[in-house]
Amino acid sequence: MRYFLAILALFTSILSASSFNLPTYETPILKVENGFAQILDNKDIIVGSSGVVTHTFSNGESSIIARAVVVEKELGLAKIRFEVYSALEQPALPLPGILPKSGDKVTLNFLYSRAVIVAPNQEVYEQIVKFFPNITFVNPDLAGAYLAFNHKPNPSRDDFRNICAQNGAGLIFIAMDGQGVFADCGSFEILKSFKSGSVSHYQVPFYSQIRGIEPAFWKLDSSYISNYNKHYKFLLDIKDEK
Questions:
Q1: Which stretches of the chain are DSSP H helices?
Q2: Pairing status of strand 50-56 against strand 36-40
Q3: How far is CA 198 from CA 13, 118, 178, 225, in A?
Q4: CB atoms within 10 A of CB 58
Q5: In sequence order, what are the beta bridge partners of 73?
Q6: Residue 188 contacts residue 208 (beta carbons within 8 Å)
Q7: Contacts from 147-151 at CB under 8 Å and sequence distance 24+?
Q8: Domain Plasminogen-binding protein PgbA N-terminal, which positions (predicted)?
Q9: Which of 179-190 are b and which e, b meaning 16 or more Cβ less than 10 Å from the residue's Cβ?
Q10: By three-state DSSP, how is residue 106 classified?
Q11: Domains of the chain and CATH, by start
């Protein structure tokens, strides 16, 4: 028990040495070309930051018309690409019949005050929540319930995107052995990485009170996770050092 507490203290002390804060940044589109746009750069945005594009109509009403992701920063400008905003992908609703253009408002670091959390056990989960008081973490039981309903004990990027969309979260925090990361929940680009200590034990697919998340024989992409760290490093495109 004493050894476990020492490992936990190491995990959290290294993790807490750094902070994470990416405030919302709003700016108009300067130029649009071939599905990309230019905006003014800002210290609060980084490559991988995402947000939304809002268009104001002639009657004064505004609507989100696209998703935006920062792909490049150079010489005081940032380049963004456009994507379909997932919350608008509903069969019962038509997609907005308008494309982003100069003058439309871009809001980046959108919903970055809320995060889905993936932790290997309850102790690590509680410490992460404690050390990032400025982030509202979605109850992991909500994510676990989603996976149980969809028979996905091996959550994919799309599963987490859906969980984030359903819970109004723009970030995902994933704690692994030796490191923890904040990533954008849409692009899965790592926004901030923290070194940490070792993890002593794991609950898969992650810590929650939802037990018995089982695969379905009729779903080819449904199976148990055999290696927690390997699974989440794959989702985050983290390559092990040789």
A1: 2-15, 122-131, 140-149, 157-166, 228-235
A2: unpaired
A3: 12, 16, 5, 19
A4: 5
A5: 78
A6: no
A7: 147/205, 147/210, 147/213, 148/210, 148/212, 148/213, 148/214, 151/213, 151/214, 151/215, 151/216, 151/219, 151/222
A8: 25-236
A9: bbbbbbbbbbbb
A10: strand
A11: 25-108 (2.40.10.410), 112-235 (3.40.50)
**Helices and strands (H, E) in the chain, number of each type:** 5, 12
Question: Position 149: which residue type?
Answer: F
Sign, CA torsion 143/147/153/158: negative
**SS3 category, 92:** coil
Q: Which two tokens stand for residue 140?
A: 């992991």
Q: Which residues of the chain have pLDDT under 70?
A: 1-18, 86-97, 241-242
Q: What is the pTM of this model?
A: 0.87
Phi-psi region of 133 (alpha: psi -120 to 50; beta: other; left: phi over 0): alpha
pLDDT at residue 8, rounded to an integer: 47
What is the edge-to-edge ordering of all strands in the sheet holding 77-83? 25-28, 105-108, 50-56, 62-74, 77-83, 36-40, 31-33
- Predicted confidence at residue 12, as pLDDT, reads 54
Q: Six-digit token pair at 150?
A: 């969809």
Q: What is the pLDDT of residue 97?
A: 66
Q: Are 83 and 53 in contact (CB under 8 A)?
A: no
